[in-house]
Amino acid sequence: MTTDDMLHVPTPAEAYATPLDSPLYGRPPGRFRDGEVMTVQYRSDPAAIEALLPRPLRPINDVVMVQVARWGDVPGLGRDTYECNVMIGARFDGPPVTSGSYSPYFYVDSDRAMAGGREFHGQPKRRADVRLECRGDIVVASVAANGIEFFLGTMPYKARPATFEDVRREVDPVTNINLKILPEIDGGTAVRQLTARDLADIVVGECWSGPSTAEVRPHATCPLYRLPVVAFLTGYYWTTEFSLVGGRVLHRYE
């Protein structure tokens, strides 16, 4: 049995994504609930960080933040979606002056998460096997592709109470900056811009800190090794929910 709603197909002017009658990802804004996050931070080579930052962005420090998360409930996306957002502190001198985290790499285990993030925000998402789990008294985050594990992070399970402000101190994940590039059908470029978006209505249930380790291994198509580990820093394990809304264009490349 069919209904009028099932037979309706939006026009191109009405649609926000394709396929027209069954978009790959949900319409923003979206509420990310039941979030479990492990944030591993480490010091890296300042020259390596600067090389991955598109101008006119400037680096803030020498810290890399690798944030591995499980999102338990996201309308339009699904349940238990895993992602790994690699971020470095960046500043745009404006106007307006904007500081936040730039993502040179982003890994997800869902085609819907990949398509939405790339098309909407310009996030550099690729498919990977992302895992976040507790093994006895430690929390383990791992990312692999093609059967090759190229990131492994560990920290103690709930060692010391912390706050979300502690998480934001070195690299702030609330404002995320991305290089959005969309091609023209003739091989040219339709969109080339720096975009920024802010997480909204953030609720942090609990937050814990402890010493963390990060291991980065070579991988030809997932080159996180370009940001080598120089020194370990504090890690965080926290639970959260937030709204992901539209953002803004910081810079358009001519």
Descriptive key words:
254 residues, mainly beta, globular, 11% helix, four-stranded antiparallel β-sheet, seven-stranded mixed beta barrel
Secondary structure elements and pairings:
Layout lengths: L3 H4 L22 E14 L2 H7 L5 E16 L7 E12 L5 E11 L2 H11 L3 E3 L1 E7 L2 E8 L2 E9 L3 E2 L2 H5 L6 E9 L5 E23 L1 E4 L14 E2 L1 E11 L3 E5 L2
Parallel strand pairs: 4-5, 4-10
Antiparallel strand pairs: 1-2, 1-13, 1-14, 2-3, 3-4, 6-7, 7-8, 8-12, 9-11, 10-11, 11-14, 11-15
Explain the overall architecture:
The chain is mainly β and 254 residues long. The chain is 11% helix and 54% strand. The protein has a seven-stranded mixed beta barrel with strand order 1-2-3-4-10-11-14. The protein is globular and about 55 Å long.
The portion of residues assigned to helices is: 10-25%
Number of helices: 4
The H-and-E topology, N to C, reads as HEHEEEHEEEEEHEEEEEE
Rough outline: globular
Distance between termini? Answer: 52 Å
What's the count of strands? 15
The side-by-side strand order for the widest beta sheet comes to 1-2-3-4-10-11-14
What value does the Rg take, in angstroms? 19 Å
**Overall mean pLDDT:** 93
- Proportion of β residues? over 45%
Uncertain stretches of 5 or more adjacent residues = none
Biggest sheet, open or closed, and with what strands and sense? 7 strands, mixed, barrel
Q: Specify the structural class.
A: mainly beta
